[in-house]
Amino acid sequence: MKGDYGTFMQKEIFEQPESVFNTMRGRLDFETESLRLGGIQANVVAIRRAKRILFIACGTSHHSALAVRALFEEAWEKPVFVEIASDFIDRKPPIFRDDVCVFISQSGETADTLNALRYCKDHDALCIGVVNAVGSCIARETHCGVHLNAGPEISVASTKAFTSQVVALTMIALLVGQSLALFQDRSRAIIKDLHMLPDIIRKVLAMNEQILTIAKECSKQQSILLLGRGGQYAAVLEGALKIKELAYIHAEGIHAGDVKYGPMALVNQARCIIFLALRDSHFNRTKAALAQIADCGAKPVVLCSIGDRAELSPFASSVLELPIVDEALQSVTSVIALQLLAFHIGVLRDNAVDTPRNLAKSVTVE
Ligand code: UD1
Ligand code: F6R
User: Fold this and answer.
1) Residue 363, ligand 2, Cβ within 6 A
2) For the whole model, what pTM was predicted?
3) Is the CB of 333 inside a 6 Å radius of any atom of ligand 2?
4) How far is the CA of 5 from the centre of ligand 2 (A)?
5) Per-residue three-class SS string for the chain
6) Distances (CA, A) of 80 to 89, 146, 234
């Protein structure tokens, strides 16, 4: 049921305060700061002892893995890899019994992810699912896992699954990091912000009208570049995917540190650029990249953290200030803003946002 919303996509974007809360419900006790993921609790020690973690997924689910990779590296201090499932099964790379392979999927039915899971199981790795659909193939075939509990996602383009995946994966990282003394203060800070997350998301959703104004400008474009680094690299990839699917406009997410190695040739006054410059540990380098593209004549739309408008305005055509949240969760706020942007551009261009052309909700063929 769409309720008061015109489309499932809009409904699913706006229910994210509740869906992320449901991902944490009964698992994270904010008063005692204790965390229990029933689905993987028995395997936490095995995960901590593993030599590598590999995240394997497609599309939006692949982007959620990219969004949490740095946190796993910090919490676990061992190698973490993020794989596109189709490329993984093309290569069939070496997988060992002391690897942990995490399969992320909203539907739990994506053929490429499922094939990768079967390959890793054949190689005796511990296979963990992070899946929304209970009873789906990936949920059944993994050794153990965590359900997202985000509720059904009807719109073909994935929205609330992304934010619940980031939250579920963040909780797994916190569990894994419990054995690392140096990580404990950081863990407490993240739990505090997980507690606030539904309210933080409500603040982003309240920016809907501002985002609609930006969408009106973007809807006339033929191509949009999105730039970001750190956790915001995952966000620009996800934003570009949403714009392609919903707006049918060419959109490309580019690492802000990589732009000088070629993409800079595309940058000029006329180019539509969305630049994610949230306050994180990469902020000074992000600002330097922003200044470089401004030197080439670009005037991007800048998404930044509250308080940074004055500092970044000289480089921007417009600035959108997002609520402050721990760096580990920043992809949640920026991706929701980009989901709204893509949704509005799609509607302004009269596209069927719930059912983009040529796409299916679950891709059950290779
Ligand atoms: C489970 C119950 C939940 C109940 C709670 C009470 C289900 C689906 N969940 O939640 O209704 O309120 O206990 O303690 O019945 N799994 C996989 N692969 C996946 C996802 C999950 O193997 O991709 C397995 C888990 O290892 C676990 C089971 O499915 O054995 C349920 O997982 P999950 O719903 O995440 O567990 P709980 O949060 O404990
Ligand atoms: C993007 C989108 C797809 C899915 C991909 C994986 O909006 O919906 O890119 O993310 O098909 O699907 P799941 O997560 O079901 O494995």
Assistant:
1) yes
2) 0.98
3) no
4) 22
5) CCCCCCCHHHHHHHCHHHHHHHHHCCCEECCCCEECCCCCHHHHHHHHHCCEEEEEECHHHHHHHHHHHHHHHHHHCCCEEEEEHHHHHHHCCCCCCCEEEEEEECCCCCHHHHHHHHHHHHCCCEEEEEECCCCCHHHHHCCEEEECCCCCCCCCCCCHHHHHHHHHHHHHHHHHHHHCHHHHHHHHHHHHHHHHHHHHHHHHHCCHHHHHHHHHHHCCCCEEEEEECCHHHHHHHHHHHHHHHHHCCEEEEEECCCHHHCHHHHCCCCCEEEEEECCCCCHHHHHHHHHHHHHCCCCCEEEEECCCHHHHHHHCCEEEEECCCCHHHHHHHHHHHHHHHHHHHHHHCCCCCCCCCCCCCCCCCC
6) 18, 19, 15
Tell me the CA–centroid distance for residue 189 and ligand 2, in Å. Answer: 30
Going by pLDDT thresholds of 50, 70 and 90, the confidence category of residue 138 is very high
| Pocket lining: 107 vs ligand 2, CB cutoff 6 Å | yes
| Residue with CA nearest ligand 1 atom 15 | 134
The gap between the terminal CA atoms of the chain, to the nearest Å, is: 31
Centroid of ligand 1 to alpha carbon of 11 (angstroms)? 26
Q: How many residues in the chain?
A: 366
- Interval 267-302: pLDDT, tens: 888 889 999 999 999 999 999 999 999 999 999 999
Paired tokens of 132: 């929304």
Residue whose CA is closest, atom 12 of ligand 1? 26
- For residue 301, how far is its CA from the centre of ligand 2 (angstroms)? 27
User: For 73-98, how does the pLDDT look when each residue is reduced to its tens digit (9 = 90+)?
Assistant: 999 999 999 999 999 999 999 999 99
Q: How far is the CA of 360 from the centre of ligand 2 (A)?
A: 9
Measured from the CB, is residue 139 less than 6 Å from ligand 1? yes
